[in-house]
Amino acid sequence: MPLLEVKNLSKSYANVDALIKMDISVNVGEIVALIGKNGAGKTTLLNCIAGNIYPTGGNILYKGETLLQKESKLNEFGILIEPTFIPYMNAADNLSILLKAAGVKSVKKNVEDILKLVGLENKKKEKTKAFSFGMCQRLGLAQALLNEPQFLILDEPFVGLDPTGKAILKNIILQKAREEKVGILFSSHDLEDVEEICDRVVLIENGRKKYDGVMDYDKKYILKCDKNIDEDTKRILLNCNIKGKEVIVDHAKELGIIFKKLDEVGINVIDLEIKQRSLYDFFKQEGGE
Ligand SMILES: Nc1ncnc2c1ncn2[C@@H]1O[C@H](COP(=O)(O)OP(=O)(O)OP(=O)(O)O)[C@@H](O)[C@H]1O
Predict the structure, then answer these.
(1) Among residues 190, 198, 257, which one has the least CA distance to residue 223?
(2) Three-class SS state of 65
(3) What ipTM is given for this predicted complex?
């Protein structure tokens, strides 16, 4: 059972159908990225899941139960969507107060530990009105992590972060998913960062899901052989594209049989190269830009 399931979800504002019959899921320990042009519907989807806005139709299930009727489940979520803070309070006090205001009963992690994790340990006594946008993003991440969430919702978390901040964020996302089995759904326009960390990507266009797939789309496996592939061997390797000494294979699961066939005709594979279209190229070709 997926950790989170969005089923047939729609959201219309006055004149705009921002989400149209959206289905997506996030598994335990899975990192899923939402990508799509400005205005595609990413933030609307995240806000519906976070309980900030009500969908017009459809359903959201968390651990198999309808989320709309079980708002207490939101305590298991960590949410980073346009974070705002009380400007005349310092960073540490903001975290404590905001958690109480959100109705979180037990603050499991120490505020100082979390501030250290996001690289704000030297800023804990500073009033947030003096915080830059990037510092607010870091503090927003700290806020999202404070109650040891089982599910993380992050809206454009890379925006405004410097390279160190981005590296910290990527490490946190990977560690939360891989070691603590947190499910993570985030939106981003930073396709290189997305490509680096996510397990699955969902492309949204005009409120509809256009693509939903694992990150090994369009992978090609290039077997570099020690001699040219002759006509007889080409006939044996019917489904492969062959160029000189190279055999190009579309699916990893076919590699074993191809290795065996090559071995049978006395051809050795001396190197294996894996090529993949970049997420940016994919996005462009799918009409994302
Ligand atoms: N409060 C609102 N009132 C009316 N229309 C809205 C509102 N919020 C969003 N929209 C519209 O809904 C559509 C989806 O917007 P949304 O913010 O979800 O897109 P997005 O994919 O997050 O975009 P971006 O990448 O620019 O953040 C857009 O057409 C937007 O103009």
Answers:
(1) 257
(2) strand
(3) 0.98
Domains of the chain: 4-214 (3.40.50.300), 219-276 (3.30.70)
Cα–Cα distance measured from residue 285 to residue 277, given in angstroms and rounded to the nearest whole number: 10
Q: How many CB atoms lie within 10 A of CB 228?
A: 12
Report pLDDT digits (tens) over 244-271. 999 998 887 888 889 999 999 999 999 9
- Per-position b or e across 84-95, b if 16+ CB within 10 A of its CB: ebeeebbbbbbb
Specify whether the CB–CB gap between 255 and 261 falls below 8 A. no
Ligand 1 centroid to residue 37 C-alpha, Å: 11
Burial of 264 (0-12, 13-18, 19+ CB in 10 A): exposed
Nearest CA to ligand 1 atom 29: 39
> 202: closest CA among 41, 11, 61?
41
**Within 6 Å (CB) of ligand 1, which residues are found?**
13, 16, 18, 36, 38-44
The amino acid that residue 89 corresponds to is M
pLDDT digits (tens, 9 = 90+) for 53-105: 999 999 999 999 888 655 666 678 999 999 989 999 999 999 988 777 766 66
Phi, psi of 239 (to 5 degrees): -85, 0
The DSSP letter of residue 127 is B
Place of tokens 């359903």: 59
